[in-house]
Write a structure and sequence with these properties.
It is built from 9 helices and 26 strands. The chain has about 450 residues and is α+β, with helices and mostly antiparallel strands. It folds into 3 domains: about 110 residues, no CATH class; about 200 residues, Thrombin, subunit H (Beta Barrel); about 100 residues, Pdz3 Domain, CATH 2.30.42.10. The chain has a 7-stranded antiparallel beta sheet. Strand 16 and strand 17 form a beta hairpin. Helix 2 runs antiparallel to helix 3. The longest helix has about 30 residues. One of its GO terms (biological process) is proteolysis. Pfam families: PDZ_2, Trypsin_2. GO terms for molecular function: serine-type endopeptidase activity.
């Protein structure tokens, strides 16, 4: 441990600045390998945490312990080190050792700041603001890029002799060289094309000429004719990671083309109860970007301006956003849209097994089962594709079409969206061993 001069340390006993190079370097290295370097910079700027331990010094002054981690030794100058102390700190950090230095607090004091302290704090804030402003500028640019491809939807519906309008959003796609607007089925179900009003961000209004939808996924597409609209760019939703920044655009409470910002909170949310609506094939993303009634059908975007999901539902006790929104991954939604346009309906794959919804990995851990997940087969239907593939009761399907299976709901979603007639590879676990096989799915209908 290397400290500044004794006199300096005695005069400023209350704040601690620690440099731990290896820990943050590893974290930022991982971030930079997955994302652009500026995101890693923002994360490093956020590595400032305030301890819950409050230290009382005298009757009026309260100070808190502050820990700061950095991989940039020169930044020590911003935290009160003199030349001698800074040189010692830099040397220690370069050797991978931990350094603690003490400095006066600029926080939580009833005493006025000295002019040099005010200037130092202003410079620190300016440096951190520039990092966050780059992120804000990126959000603004993504919003400008994508808004022309986002459509405000108003559907006039009649239910139980009562008429009402439901607002939502949609995203423009080009499917087989035609312009379509993708949205959620629940936004437009019960309304004819003439009862569905579409509005662009520049105020143009029109009606769809054709509407197709699938209740099992809550995906709908509407064909547009006679108007030129820019199609949104699609991202690979399978490549998204928890913690990625995301942007939602929609019409919350009818306020068209509203933009919110957050992160991807989770993936693979299934078996959700969505009120009166039943969605059989679920594989939702979860986000804390504000999603409210009216956001349904709007795009969830990455910071490259690519659509990675379709905002669909929220978990809420108040009816508004509480930081838990759900979106259909775009890879899944596009598969459904493609089949709707090609066939007029979704042709769901059929495997022919009954699965155990209560199975967990822990059930077989003592027996040496080391897989991360899997779906346990309770029954194989006679004459089904599963029987042809020689699946048996008690088999555990651990991989399907190259993807590791997490649980029974995951397998149901993957099978339901797999192409009919294609030869699909599988890996099953039986009697303590892995076996490779393949199956050709048929149409569930």
């Amino acid at each position: 441990m290397v400290l500044p001069s004794k006199k300096y340390a005695e005069s400023v006993r209350h704040q601690t600045v620690s440099y731990r190079r290896s820990r943050l370097a590893a974290m930022c290295g991982r971030m930079a390998s997955r994302r652009s370097s500026w995101i890693a910079s923002v994360a490093c700027a956020l590595a400032l945490s305030v301890s819950p331990n409050v230290i009382a010094q005298g009757p009026t002054i309260i100070k808190r312990a502050v820990e700061f981690e950095t991989t940039s030794p020169p930044s020590a100058a911003n935290y009160g080190l003199d030349d001698k102390g800074r040189s010692a700190a830099e040397s220690a950090v370069q050797e991978g050792r931990s350094v603690s230095v003490r400095r006066p607090s600029l926080e939580d004091t009833t005493q006025p700041l000295l002019e040099d302290q005010r200037e130092r704090l202003f410079n620190e804030l300016a440096e951190e603001f520039s990092m966050f402003d780059r992120l804000g500028n990126l959000v603004r640019r993504v919003s400008t890029l994508v808004k022309p491809s986002v459509i405000h939807i108003e559907a006039h519906k009649t239910e139980k002799n009562e008429s009402y309008d439901e607002a939502g959003a949609g995203v423009v796609l080009r499917i087989h060289d035609e312009i379509w607007v993708m949205t959620n089925r629940h936004v437009i179900v019960g309304a004819s094309p003439k009862q569905i009003l579409l509005r662009t961000n520049d105020g143009r209004e029109f009606h769809p000429v054709k509407v197709l939808s699938d209740p099992s996924t809550d995906v709908a597409v509407m064909k547009i004719a006679g108007i030129d609209l820019p199609a949104a760019r699609l991202g690979n939703s399978d490549a998204t990671e928890i913690g990625d920044f995301v942007i939602a655009i929609g019409s919350p409470f009818g306020l068209s083309h509203s933009v919110t910002f957050g992160i991807l909170s989770a993936k693979g949310r299934r078996d959700l109860s969505l009120g009166e609506q039943r969605i059989d094939l679920q594989d939702f993303f979860q986000t804390d970007a504000a999603i409210n009634p009216g956001n349904s059908g709007g795009p969830l975007l990455n910071l490259r301006g690519e659509v990675v999901a379709l905002n669909t539902a929220i978990a809420s006790s108040s009816g508004g956003s509480e930081g838990i929104g759900f979106a259909i991954p775009m890879n899944m939604a596009v598969k459904v849209a493609d089949q709707l346009v090609r066939n007029g309906a979704l042709r769901r794959g059929y495997l022919g097994v009954t699965l155990d919804p209560d199975f967990t990995v822990a059930d077989l851990a003592a027996a040496g089962y080391n897989e991360k997940g899997g779906a346990l087969v309770k029954n194989v239907r006679p004459g089904s594709p599963a029987e042809v593939a020689h699946l048996q009761r008690g088999d555990i399907i651990v991989e399907f079409d190259g993807l590791e299976i997490e649980n029974d709901d995951h397998l149901v979603a993957r099978v339901g969206l797999t192409s009919i007639g294609a030869n699909i590879p599988m890996i099953i676990y039986r009697d303590g061993k892995r076996y490779r096989t393949s199956v050709t799915l048929t149409d569930i209908n």
